[in-house]
Amino acid sequence: MRQQNEARQNAQREQLQRQQAARQGERIREQRRDGDLRQQAARDDAASQQLQRQASGQPARVMGGNQPGRRDDRRDDDRRNEQNRLSREVQERRIREERQRAERFQQEERRRYSNRNDWEQRYARQLRDQRRNSQYRYQQQYYDRLRQQQIRFSSRNYNYYNDPYYYTPASYRYSYGGRWYQTNRYGGDLLRQAVNYGYREGLNAGRADRMDGWRSDYRNSYAYEDANYGYNGYYIDQGQYNYYFRQGFQRGYEDGYYGRYRYGHRGSDGNYAILAGILAVIVGLQLID
Length: 289
Prior knowledge:
Layout: H1 2-52, H2 71-83, H3 88-113, H4 117-129, H5 133-154, E1 172-176, E2 179-183, H6 185-212, H7 222-226, H8 238-258, E3 264-266, E4 272-274, H9 276-283, E5 286-287
Helix pairs in contact: 1-5, 1-6, 3-5, 4-5, 5-6, 6-8, 6-9
């Protein structure tokens, strides 16, 4: 009897030690994931700011490696655009329309984020009740990045006349919602950015659901529903940005949830990006002859 008690106690101690080791391992993995999310957010902010440097006349880098032509070709394009720049009248009309759209978007964003309780009640409490701790942390981080983005965009004094988008003629066309639209390479850069930002957010959301042992459900994510990270009201309509963001999100979520890289990869700069071929198909930019 004594030997049986000792054996049972030893087994209980070993089980307790295994449970403690498993919890410690999970804490370490969570800390690493949080660190990866913060680093990715910093890289995303840097890339977004690079796109916004267009206000000082600096061209943005095409996201995801789908850059048409060599650097010399881009310089040739810049010289041609400078020679064929839009008339002052057309530029003024474009600026007026874009300013109105951006102001409407910024007002709506300020209204949406003035009260965080709505989001907490709809998502955070639900995730806590479901004990989806990883998804809860991710969605809080996404929301915080949106708030920081809103503050950054609201504090900027945007100089439309120094932004080459507003005097550069259209060089691409793309199909959306059964209609054809035209844009220049700066608008094309933003379309690509939307897909890549969506892919990265989806990747993190999918990983979080996998870690929580939750079913695959990319639509049940605040980031997917919001789809505004990286958008500030300029260049393209909000609905278009949301659409392309969600296209990237869906594919990133699948890669994150199933632990694979079917649609994207991690570049040498540490950024996750959707594969160039898939990006080209999603955006569907066509050169205007």
